[in-house]
Design a protein that fits this description.
4 helices, 2 domains, fatty acid metabolism, six-stranded mixed sheet, 32% helix, alpha+beta, Butyryl-CoA Dehydrogenase, subunit A, domain 3, 22% strand, three-stranded antiparallel sheet, single chain, Butyryl-CoA Dehydrogenase, subunit A, domain 2
């Protein structure tokens, strides 16, 4: 608790693997519960199970929320989330059983150190499983959540806010381009006449105005998605899961 309180923990979300992205049921990372020690043993059993692409994993993060297939009492209970330490807090060196690094150059987004993660018999305490909706008892007994789809809530949250974030990024770009087009003058239309703003050219308007309209559309859709997310998650807290499929469909579209 104290390292987190003192802002010493830098986290990332490790879901995507080399062989699987949005097909969550296909994820291969395993977390096997050992009741003798009350620990989970995390493994990346195949090359395709290596976590691939989490932002901040390459050089920055020292902890991760890892999605893995939960095994207890010789049965798989599907994907669950675990808090996994990755690097020493003092030296930032990888912990034993952790292979981690940067995935290297990409086509764009180079400011983000996207990384990879491989785990070999890496043990974490039972308490490191996120147990708000489902849990594993000390003896290994699995307690089901109200709805199995609640496991996917993290990605629903992120997806619900992507539209609004895109609107702000596009709006900033449009503001810069339109302001520049208003102050930049180019070419006389008549000899000796003033040079018009390049914003007066229809070809420039054709490039910029549809993007400006798109930014407004993204803004309003983003606001709707934000309100919808908070409303439906509030209902979920009260035990009403009826609109969870709609939220998942809207955010995945």
């Amino acid at each position: 608790f104290m390292p987190a309180w003192n802002l010493e923990i830098i986290g990332t979300y490790a879901q995507t693997e080399m062989g699987h992205g949005t097909h969550l049921r296909g994820l291969e990372t395993t977390a096997t519960y050992d009741p003798a020690t009350q620990e989970f043993i995390l493994n990346s059993p195949t090359v395709t199970s290596i976590k691939w692409w989490p932002g901040g994993l390459g050089k920055t993060s020292n902890y991760a929320i890892v999605l893995a297939q939960l095994y207890t009492q010789n049965k798989c209970h599907g994907l669950h989330a675990f808090i996994v330490p990755l690097r020493q807090l003092g030296t930032h060196e990888p912990l034993p059983g952790i292979t981690i690094g940067d995935i290297g150059p990409k086509f764009g987004y180079d400011e983000m150190d996207n990384g990879y993660l491989k785990m070999d018999n890496f043990r974490i305490p039972r308490e490191n499983m996120l147990m708000k909706h489902a849990k594993v008892e000390p003896d290994g007994t699995y307690v089901k959540p109200l709805n199995a789809k609640l496991t996917y809530g993290t990605m629903v949250f992120i997806r619900s806010f992507i539209v609004g974030d895109s609107a702000r990024s596009l709006a900033r770009a449009c503001t810069i381009a339109i302001r520049y087009s208003a102050v930049r003058h180019q070419s006389e239309l008549k000899p000796g006449g003033p040079e018009p703003q390049i914003l007066d050219y229809q070809t420039q308007q054709y490039k910029l105005f549809p993007l400006l309209a798109t930014a407004y559309a993204f803004h309003f859709v983003g606001a709707y998605m934000k309100d919808t997310y908070h409303r439906i998650t509030g209902n979920i807290q009260d035990g009403d899961l009826s609109e969870l499929p709609e939220l998942h469909a809207l955010s995945a579209g």
